[in-house]
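To close the chapter, one final illustration. This time we ask the reader to focus less on the individual chains and more on the assembly as a whole: which components sit near each other, and how the overall shape emerges from the parts.
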Amino acid sequence: MFKILNNDKNTGARSAELFTKTNSIETPVFMPIGTLGTVKSVSPFELYDEGFKIILSNTYHLFLRPGIDVIEKFGSLRNFINYKGSILTDSGGFQIFSLAKFAKPNGDGVEFMSHIDGNRHFFTPEKVIKLQETFDSDIMMPLDIFSGPEASRSKAHSDLSITISWAKRSLEARTKKENLLFLITQGNFFEDLRINCAAALADLDADGYAIGGLAVGEDKEIMFKMLNCSISKLPELKPRYLMGVGTPEDILNAIGCGVDMFDCVLPTRNARNGFAFTAKGNLNIKNAIYRDDTEPIDAECLCFCCSNFSKAYVRHAFMSREIFSQRLLTIHNLHFYEKMILNTRKAIKEGYFESYKNKFIKLRKTGEEHNENITQFL
Amino acid sequence: MFKILNNDKNTGARSAELFTKTNSIETPVFMPIGTLGTVKSVSPFELYDEGFKIILSNTYHLFLRPGIDVIEKFGSLRNFINYKGSILTDSGGFQIFSLAKFAKPNGDGVEFMSHIDGNRHFFTPEKVIKLQETFDSDIMMPLDIFSGPEASRSKAHSDLSITISWAKRSLEARTKKENLLFLITQGNFFEDLRINCAAALADLDADGYAIGGLAVGEDKEIMFKMLNCSISKLPELKPRYLMGVGTPEDILNAIGCGVDMFDCVLPTRNARNGFAFTAKGNLNIKNAIYRDDTEPIDAECLCFCCSNFSKAYVRHAFMSREIFSQRLLTIHNLHFYEKMILNTRKAIKEGYFESYKNKFIKLRKTGEEHNENITQFL
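The assembled structure is written out below.
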C-alpha cells in the first residue's frame, strides 16, 4: 500500500509510492483542493494532465451540497466530478469547528448548524465513514475535533481524548479495506499532547497518519516543533500527511521532517487574488509595473499561462475581472507547485535534497537570478 | 474580399466567404464577444478550436483598459490577446451613448466621461479609426451615434446626419486597405430614415455594412421591418452585419433576410447566468429538477461540457458558485450557436434553408422530440 523508495541521508525526507484503489501516487505529493469537487476554475482533465494524480475534497461541504443522495446516484464522487485520479476526502471536522455555527461535540458525535442555511445536523464518526464510503473515497479521514489555536491545555487534552476515541470508532466503522483510512493526530501546541496522541494512534492499524491543527496562525518555529513531536511517534513505514500546509518553503522544510503528503489552498486561492509564485519570489499581478510588460510571469516556466500570455495581458484581464485571468494564474501556480514537487522527488532520489531545498528557498528569498543551476529550480 | 457562394432560392439567405488580413471566414457567421479582449471564461485556443474564426472586441473598452499604448507595444490586439483568428472591433459609439456618462456629441466628435473613473475623453471619427489601426483590427467600425430607442423623429434625423458625415470622415481617415472598414446604418424605427441612411452609405466605398440600433427592446416585428428597410438599399455583393443580434431564432430569421454576420452576448452572458441553449428549448440549470439528473444538458451534444459532465454536476457547480460551471455553460452555448451556424451554411448550400429554419424554430418552441430528421438539428 505504501512503498518507500528512497530515504534521504541528511534529512528525514523520503520518496515513496502510495497505492490507492484508483492509481499509484508518487510521494512527496501536493494535493490541490477541490472542496466541492471542483478545483476552482480548472477542469479535472487539466489537473490530471498537469500531473496531479490525487486531489482533496471535503465531506462536510459535499454533504451539504449537493447532498449525499446525489453523489450516491453516480456511484462515487469520482464519477460525479469526472476525475481520473484519486480523491482524499477530509472528514469536515475542521470545517464543523471553524465554519459551521454552534458546533456542540459530545461523546457520541457533534451537532452543528450548516453555514449555508442554518439547518441542524449531527455527525458521528460512524456517519462520517459511511459518507466517505458512499463517496467511494480513495482515502478517508475520521471525524476529529479542532480545538482552535487559543485552546487551553485542559480543553486541548479533553478534546484529544474524544478525537482518539473517535479514531478508534472510525476504524471499527469502516467496512471496506480498499477505501484507505488515515487517522489524524492532534495535540494543539503542547508537546506532550502531540507525542501522546501520535503514540496512541500509531498503535492502531491505520493506512496512514495525518498531522492536523497546524498552520493555523502559529509561528513557524512552533509549527515545526509540533510537527516533529507528532512525527517522532508515527510509524516509519506509513504515509504522513501534513494538513493544510503550505507555502513552498514550508512544504520543502516539512518534507525534510519526513512528511509525504500536503494540501493547501495557497496556490489556487492566491491565484484568484492575483498572486503568482515564481522561482524568484512571489509576484502581485495587480502591480502597475506590469501594465505594459510583454514578458510572461516567468520566462522559463512552461505552463499554459506563461507559454501563451504576457504579464500585461494577465494583469489587464485580472484588473478587468475576467475570470479567465483566475484560471491562468491558477494553472500557473499549480504548475509551480507540481514542478517543485517533481524536482524534490528527483533530488531525494539522487541524494541532493538538502542542497536543492536550501537553494530553492534562498533563490525565492533573494529574488535574484542565480545563473548557476538556475534550471534546476524551474 | 467577399465572395458569395450560394444564394437561397426561397429566401434572402446566402453563404459566402469573407477574406480578412488574417484568415478567410465562412458566412453566415456568429462572432462571440470579447469586449475587453477575452471571451469570458474561455481561452482563445478553445474558441478557435470550437470553430470561431472571428471574434468581437470593443474600441471604447480597450481604449480605457488597458489603454492604447499597452496594445501598441504588442504590435496588435491579436498579439496582445493571442488569438489566431480575426478581430472585429466595434467603435464604441453604442457604449459611449449607453454606458459612458454625459456623452456630448457635436459636429466634430463626442465628449464623454469614462464609466470606470469619470475621466473626460474626446473621440472623433478620425481618432476611432486611428485606434483601430493601432489595434490592427481585421474589421473596423466607424464612430456613430446611437440615439436610443425612445428618440423622436427629429432627433433621430439630426443624429443620422452626423452619423453619415462621420462615416465619410472615417473612410477618408483610414490609411490601410487591409484593415477592412464597415459602415453602420442607423435610422431608429423610422422606415424612411432607415432607407435613406442605407442608400446614402451604400454610395460610399465601404468593405461591408452593419445594421445598428436594433434589438434594443423593440418588438420583433418592428425589428425585422427596420432590418428589411436597411437591407433593401445595401449592395448585394458586400457583407451585411446585424449588430447585437441575437437569439437563435432571430439569427435564423435574419439570415433569411440576407444578413451574413452576427454578434451577441446571449450565449456567453446567459451561460454565466445558468441558462443553456438546446435544440429542444432553453434550460435553466438552477432548476431543482436537475439536482440528481445524471444525463448531460443535451444527450446528443458533442461539446466538452455534454461529453463529460451531467446536469447534476453542472448544477451543483453553478449553485456552489464555482466559476468552472460558467466555463462549462459558456462552452456548451457557444457550441450550440456554432453548430446551428454550421448546419445553416450546409442548408443554404444544399438548398433546404427554409425548411431547416422552420423545423429548428418549431423544435425549440415545442420542446418535443421529433424523431424524423432529429440529427439535422443537433
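The mean pLDDT of chain A is 95. The radius of gyration of chain A is 21 Å. With these observations in hand, you are ready for the problems at the end of the chapter.
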